[in-house]
Amino acid sequence: MRKLLFILLIITSTLNVNSQELRCNIQVVSQQIQGTNKQVFRTMQTAIYEFVNNRNWTDHIYDQDEKIECNILINLTDQISSDEFKGTMQVQVRRPVFNSSFNTVLLNFKDNDVHFKYAEYQALDYNETNTPTSLTALLAFYANVIIGLDYDSFALEGGSPYFTKAEEIVNKMQNSKYPGWKSFESKSNRYWLIEDILNNSYRPVRECIYRYHRLGLDRMADKLTDGRSEIAESLRLLQKAHRAKPGSFILQIFFDAKADELVKIFSESFNDEKKRAYNILSDIDPANLNKYKKILE
């Protein structure tokens, strides 16, 4: 009987390890905060790492090689009190490309409204039915956005359940005294990130994410021309979204992740495709025009 229980415990433990979705590198930087107990930042980093990586965010089982690769860099610039901190947070998400050693960036976003409380050795608990703390809300929000973007890149609007969870967190935080959660505070915060993702006006952007990755990049190892052509066609979806609402936050986020990659993809294309890609990109992302000029060289 004891042997059977021991085997069951091992099986359960193995399932739990394999079901966790994220392989997230966490770094907490505090160089700008002087004269404080640096140990609190080390325990904070450990607590955040365990919260993000050891929690099951979905009902799906992930093998080790299926885990979503991401980085979270929290740069703390102010310590308001012994347990209250302000700073920024850089979130980067990568996705492997089929039949290659290449990883493509899905998200490279800097959140400038990071403000939370954390007491040394504090346990980070989270329950979807309750209002989270400022720190767990921040981490759970981005965990769901990360998973949602990964799912969107494999299936058309596949990330919707996780984007909806992120939206629910935003709704719960509307009475928070901390910034980043409300529409009127900024046009480029967490509120608008999830608002744009779920807004029907920007559905072409999500379709682009799917076609760009699953029908484009994932085919390039075997069918280079066909895959690149699909990526070129997917840009027309971004153009459609841009014409509906120029200068949108979600398009800015897309190009923050993809501008350099697009230059590499189309620099090796034939002339007509280069020109088509350049004309679309220069129209919808003029901020990166100097980069896109390299496509035509």
Separation of the first and last Cα atoms: 72 Å
Number of helices: 10
Give the number of domains. Answer: 2
What is the number of strand segments? 4
Q: Approximately how much beta-strand content do the residues carry? A: 15-25%
Shape: globular
Measured as a percent range, the helix fraction is 40-55%
Oligomer: single chain
- Structural class by sheet pairing and helices: alpha+beta
Question: Top keywords for this entry?
Answer:
297 residues; alpha+beta; 4 strands; disordered N terminus
Description:
With 297 residues, this protein is α+β, with helices and mostly antiparallel strands. It has two domains: 2-198, no CATH class; 204-296. Helices cover 51% and strands 17% of the residues. It has ten helices and four strands, in the order H-E-H-E-E-E-H-H-H-H-H-H-H-H. It has helices at 2-19, 39-53, 134-152, 160-172, 190-198, 203-220, 224-244, 249-267, 271-284, 289-292; strands at 22-29, 68-81, 84-96, 103-117. Strands 1-2-3-4 form a four-stranded mixed sheet. The longest helix has 21 residues, at 224-244. It starts with a helix and ends in a 5-residue tail after the last helix.
